[in-house]
User: Fold these one by one.
Assistant:
Number 1:
Amino acid sequence: MDIQTWHPISVHFPIAFLLLSGILSLYLVYKFKKYLAQFNFGLLLIGLIGCGIAIYTGNIEDGKVSRTLCDPTILKTHENYAYYLLWIFIANLAFWAVKLLIRPKSYNTILAILIIVSSLIGICCLVYVGHLGASLVYEQAAGVKVPSEDCEGF
Amino acid sequence: MKSLITKSIYLFSIVLLIACGKSTDVVESGTYTGKIIEVEADKSEIYVKTEDDKTLELYFVEDTKLTQNGEKVPFSTLEEDQTVEVEVKKVGKRLDPLTVKIQ
């Protein structure tokens, strides 16, 4: 299988894991439960690994599809926001690590605000990246192999 | 509380700036002179900063002619900070480099 096809497969994992983690983070700030926070930490970690893989496969695909796109600036924005969301969720992971491992008593409010802000911005970036990715495929046929009219080969 | 939220937003703005990607520009078909700011050899791609401060992202196509002193040279000749004259054709919002002359 061409590694190019790994991008559409790999993008869905970080979307699922990081979106769920972002929502769970918001809930945990409202109502903290340690076991749920630890579970969320795992979700974040897996989501970030998935995000790294998605960026890696996307970068490979970028070199292949850019020459066929009518508006490659959308691809560039898609790529930039993918990096933004990676950094934001890394920050989110760091905040949770501080909260769960160091457990500072005097900075709880600041940590809560940082977690809320990073989760909200992260979710927004995630949705925007997904929207741009869909736009590239559905509006510009990025990486799409169009079958012949008589569906030969199927 | 308000100042904490403001500080948090500032912090994230800094994170975004650190993580910031490249923004590129779309220009009309024509000839532009500028400096190469990045070469991505595995994608046969260069970023050129033009004299009027525009960043052009150029993916070499089959027809792209790369020359230096009037002679054809391979892509590996390209390096950062080289001054180049590029002739681009705007297709949609994509810029196809027709000629790239290393100066």
Number 2:
Amino acid sequence: MTTAIRDAESKLLELHGKFRAASSLLPLAEAAALRFAALRYPGKKHEMFTFARLNELRDTAFDYRTGPPKAADAGLARKHIYAGCDKSVIVMVDGKYDAGLSDVSGMTGQVSVVPLEQYASGEANMRRLVADIETETDVFACLNSMFSGGGVAVEIKKGARPVAPLQILHLSTGGAPNIATSPRVVMDAGADSSVQLIIRFAGIGEGYFVNSVCDLRIGEGAAVHLSQVQGDPARAWHFSKTRVFVAKDGRFDAVSASTGGRLARHHWECRLQGEGAALTLRAASILEGTEQAHHYTRVHHEKPNTTSYELYKNMLNGSSVSSVDTTVTVHPGAQLAVSEQLINNLMLSETAKANTKPNLTIFADDVKCKHGATVGRIDEAQVFYLMSRGLSEKLAKALLTTSFAKSVLNAMPHKPAAEDAGKLLLKKLEALGIELA
Amino acid sequence: MLEIKDLHAGLEGMEILKGISLTLNKGEIHSIMGPNGHGKSTLSKILIGHPGFSVTSGSIAYNGKNLLDLSPEQRALEGIFLAYQYPVEIPGVNNAEFLRMAYNAKLKHQGKELVDPLDFEDILSAKMALLGMDEKYRERSVNEGFSGGEKKKNEILQMAVLEPQLAVLDEIDSGLDIDALKIVAEGVNKLANTGNAVLAITHYPRLLQYIKPQHVHVLIRGKIVRSGGYDLADELERTGYDRYLQS
């Protein structure tokens, strides 16, 4: 272990030592610090961070926002609240739940929203939070719990099927250099409920580090459709860990759009825990300059007749770096599991780097699992097809480039969210001189 | 409308077409027939300007212009349409949006006012109704996940929207069952008129029972070895290509 890593570790534990006295979730923070110390700060050879360049993050001294919430700019929040979500929005400012800016009056009786501290005051709930952190493998998720406070717990009532989507807006206000925030969301979707969830990350300022954790527990026969839009500024660090637990006949569908950043990392841990549980995960990113976006996904088929489908599309220019490291594990007895992993990379420059690592670990003998990955340039056969219908070569290439990402983004069911994600990602192509169709 | 004279062309230095001459006039339906691998699809690729194929000698005049001077998109804008044997899938590009872009590209070329999405909806609806096509063709990505038959129908829908002067149908019947073949052929018949011309390329006479070309040409080893009327297709149905291959 290098001195730099040891230094980073000690500083974070020392910081936690100062913070613990004020922690509103002390048992969780303590368990997280123990787990953090056991896992250690990751080095270059850490299996979970093979493709991410962590040095700059490690060597930056962050100001962890552990105090009371900062007064937020309502105008900034409004800018990022989607049409149709004004009465169904939870706003988190620098990782803290802001009840003043949040409004879930359109979901009364269907959804309850409480501060995480209130949720964790129930002994069983705190036990569950602690149990999760004790088996956590991601050191940054531990870091989130070491410093989290002011999070939010959401319950979708049994059988509730709200018409409007529920938006969770994570705002980073910047203002000072190197601010680190630790947003935490816990959501339980009751049996037979169905909800459309939109998570939007936005911020102003440079150099902040948002290190988010979100737990989604999807009950029997329930369905959650998540649209996640990571739109932090180019010089921000973004880490998000999403734990998903799907019960019998439950369903989780996710579409994730990532603009990347100095270092954006999305960790999905998905457990299909009941028979008939299903998930789809689609993710798109467009990167330029030295931006990085990494997807690290672990899908566990723990019961029979479970299905998973993953699709990743990365478009890379400049010296950007992407990675998709995904493993599907079919546990013993999880017969008739069906899984598919597909990773497509579209390279727009000679110096960009796309890493792909799809894996399968199978402990059952009657399953159907496949994976595939492609790395390439724009398909000339498609260009010619469009030209043979009268489109110019430039327009044909623009259409194909945008469509590469749109094939994922269009799967977002809430149109304003899909359009926002499209604008965020596709505006980068305009900067590259690709005329948008 | 189209005059091909002594055309020699090929792929990667290999000559495939060895002196083809052919004239198409407005209002005519021609068919090029022949076994696989004798140059039928090469001719269609040459007409549309595929960059992988090259012309070594001969000429193609289209409405008085030298077709070989025109880029693929210029040829399309001038009214040449190829219905592909294997239409490519384009995930993420909405079929209706793509058709509107192609339609507007043509209008722009003709110096006409472009149509907005709402007006184009009506134009597309009318064409889909004409061909009896399902709404799914409007919303789905271009050819993505389409069956072989659906892809061919989508080609005909594009042809209906773009109203070409010269439609080249490259093995539009391949991979189709009888019902799908009838639908596709009926679509072609509805679109053929006195102001345009159709060149149907096939190796099965079955398609021709529906679209009834006035002129049939047999293409063997890169040359048209015989031309005749619709009766020639009937004859080929009975005798096959063996006699031409042996000579």
